[in-house]
Amino acid sequence: MPARASTRATRNSSAAVSHKSSAATLKSRASTTSRVSSAAVDIPDETPESTLRTRICAIFKDAQKTTASHRKLVVNLRKLHEACCYEPAARHKAPSASDADADFDEADFNPEFTRCVLRAMPVKKSEAVGEKTVRFVGLFLRHASDKDNELLGEEDADASTMPETPSTRLITHLMEAVLPLLAAKDKYVRYRATQLISHIINSLDAIDDDLFQKLRQGLLRRIRDKEAMVRAQAVLGLGRLAGNQVEAMANSDDSDDEAETGLLEKLLEVLQNDPSADVRRSLLVNLPILPTTLPYLLERARDQDAQTRRAVYARLLPALGDFRHLSLSMREKLLRWGLRDRDDNVRKAAGRLFRERWIEDCAGVNPAPEDGKPAEPAEPSFDGLLELLERIDVVNSGVENGVALEAMKGFWEGRPDYREAVAFDDQFWETLSAESVFMARSFNDFCRAEGNRKYESLVEEKLPEVTKLAFFLDRYLNVLVEALRRVNSQEVAEDEDEEDTVEQEFIVEQLLHIILTLDYSDEVGRRKMFSLLRQTLSIPELPDEVTKLTVDVLRDICAPDAAGEKEFCSVVLEAVADVHDTIVDEPAPDNDDDSFHSARSDVSSDGTPTKSDKRAKGPELSEEEARAKAIKEIMINMKCLHIVQCMLSNVEGTLQENDHLVAMLNNLVVPAVRSHEAPVRERGLVCLGLCALLDRPLAEENLTLFMHFFTKGHAALQITALQILTDILNVHGSQLLTANPTLLKVYVKALRSGSKNPEVQGAATVAVSKLLLGRVVTDHDTSAELLKTLVVAYFDPATAGNQSVRQALNYFLPVFCYSRAENQDLMRCVALDALHALYNVREGLEDDDADVDEEMASLNSIGACLVDWTDPRKCYQPGVPMDAEKKNVNGDVHLELAADILDKLNGNTGSKCPRRQAPRNYELTIFFFFFFCTEEEKKVIALLLGKLYVSPASSEDKIRGLYEGVSLAVEENLLSDATSRNALYKIHVSLGKIVNQLTEQEKGTRRSISRSVSVSVAGDDRTVTEDSILTQEPIKEEEDSGDDGPSNDTIRQTEGESIVEELLTDGE
Fold first, then answer.
1. Strand locations in 224-274 (E)
2. Compositional bias (Basic and acidic residues) at which positions (predicted)?
3. In 3D, which of 467, 385, 513, 463 has the Cα closest to residue 455?
4. Which residues contact 467 (CB under 8 A, 6 or more apart)?
5. 508 in Cβ contact with 482 (< 8 Å)
6. How far apart are CA 631 and CA 1019, in angstroms?
7. I need a labelling partner for 312 at 20 to 30 A (CA). Which of 322, 384, 461, 625 fits?
């Protein structure tokens, strides 16, 4: 804007632009632009109306309506700002209405602008006008700063200090007025002030140093604000300040390193510990990405808030750039955390990141055209895909339960261009690498499993036939065996050879996974594959995973009927005999009949003798040779047992009907269990357990053996024995548990072994949960004992560090109780006994001077959980959705629990209150209630009475019986403290209402029956007699029941009396 001399006071800037004087004292109203009251913001005192105020207010009014007009309004407001701050270029024309703004200067504009902004400070967060006003202010200040910088020209472009302009003075004036509001008492004023400051910080490119420090200190105080919305806005501004300071530190050696480090440390602490997810998420996307902050940012992938976790994959990682800068372990963790997240949106964001952004980093993208149009998507690059698989270490992450399979499943699903373009020609199969074979395996799995097999034709078209795949498998098997033998022959294996062996093993595994899914209707291909796998299984050096997959494929090739199963067993046991014959000819000296090494390897179908029968006795061996021979024998025996274990996992028939299995059991498994070598004995135990699943008499004979292994074995062996026993019970039924009382003690002992063996306790918890949830254990006493032990273990502070126990029970207990009404009744039977046991645990902690409330849940919380688990309204009912509101369901289980509580309370007071007259099952509960109950425990269980659900749909006899017991308890003042009495009165009133309704319904029914009988057959002697009997019955019942106690006055009262008033009067 051209400048000219003016009669007003002017000052020359470095850009030779004429300004109006801003050094003059502001008018009186400017001194009152910022006042903070104790409750809210004070608006400056009103001054006489002016055209400037009218125009500024009109602009702010329009800005609150919609954000679409903000750009136009900013231009208009900027014209006013220039008119007040800059001299006009010329005044050749006569004064007009448009020149009215020339009568005002910068000292008038700044207070009016600040006055309008302060009007938005008390606006609540839910009001959209506050948000629009803040956005408008930020947009205007950014526009004004840019215009002022343009007017300055290039002369001050490289100046070391920030030039003073009208916009900088306006920002300073506004911030000086808003900064005190950060400490206002009203939360909305603090919120809007913090929001405005943070928005302005993020809108501007530069701020004066003095103002920067003031804003930094003010916002730092707000990160400890009690309101989460204030903290969230504060970290928005501080994140930008921290980023700017990092840039300044990189460009200057004089920066305040300690101040920067302190700011980042505080923000990182907030990121880790702030209870509000909004605050953590705001910091996640606003903190600068530095080597020091990146681990903390990526850590939010395990945040408890789903939206924060999603922000890591949808915003942070895309903004990070090339993923190859991350370490290999971090890439694998991020993929695993994201693709296995419990929230579906997080899983989708992680899958999208992998198939869209990470593949672009490896494959590259097309350059954007010069006309500004978006770049076209790049053509599928399989070299890039192979590099991506290499970058996530597919050799380790591509195994079973690895994350690479899940990642590629989403990749093939979300990238149809790669799905259609992939090709597997002969050149591909002849030059397989770990990445390429995994790509083929993942594509095969996706096409055969996803989309209701609609992609199966695609994979059949692209994969070669069975015969050709058998040829390629034979080729890579030979390479693997040669590599294994070369490594075994070396005294010190080289790293390159080991890596090559691992890669070759991975290639063979993936080929077997593909072969496992093929169709063997082609007889030529089936025979070729069958012969190859039979020969492969006889190789002693074959790795365990390859052996397992080979056995699985053999079972798939054989027919699924009994004859196919016998053929499968015959082939596998022949391979076992071949492997066992590789043991050196010299037998171990002094072998007795019970030794595993004395067992003949004639486990094939026809008992073919092996080379071990023809071995001749050789010269004595040296100590080293004998040791090497013993080790080799152990390894061969372990290999044979592993093949047998894989075979038994694929057998479903009966043991006695398969001669091959009987021979294998007697000649291989039993000698292995009797072996003196611990590894052989333990693997033999697993094989014996698998055999026991196929034959019930064998399982019954060896139950004692399995329990012995649990009692005498180490932790890993105990877990194995527990798993075998649980599988036997699941297959053969709980009769074995009933016939062997010692077996129950094994489970109880395992559940209580937390301090010594937490892994055993975790395995036992899962095992018992399966037995109870699957209704394998049907005996009431046994089920009750196991369930009580689980409940005590769930709340026992000794299991606080055993996450496997806590997580298993956290799922099991609600599911078990809510799945069946019988399960809720079982929980009701053990609830009070478990509560008593936990009360003793808590007493023991208090005796040890431990922080009880810190280590263990309160008894009231435990009681609330027990009541909730037995709530009949939450129990599953066939045909009724679980989320449907259930009213008037049968609440007998809570009535029974209330009766149990009364029995327990009456057991210590010597009360003569009779038990309920309604029939009940005392098989288990009577035993539970004969222990002593202290006053403190009485208070805990008495409070449960007020939390029980009393339903009119419950059994009438149980309602009336419980009502009598509660009435007598109220009459005899069974409970002394006020809280317990209130709980008793509550259930008393609830039961009284229902009993009164039942009585009224019964009276009305009898009147209608009497009236209908007397009218229909009037004059008949027999009917009159019948009528008299009907009308006398209720009177007789009232007289009989009236002798039981004063509680039955309710039944005889007149209709006008209120039962609630009578009960409350009795309570007083």
1. none
2. 611-624
3. 463
4. 522, 524, 525, 528
5. no
6. 107
7. 384
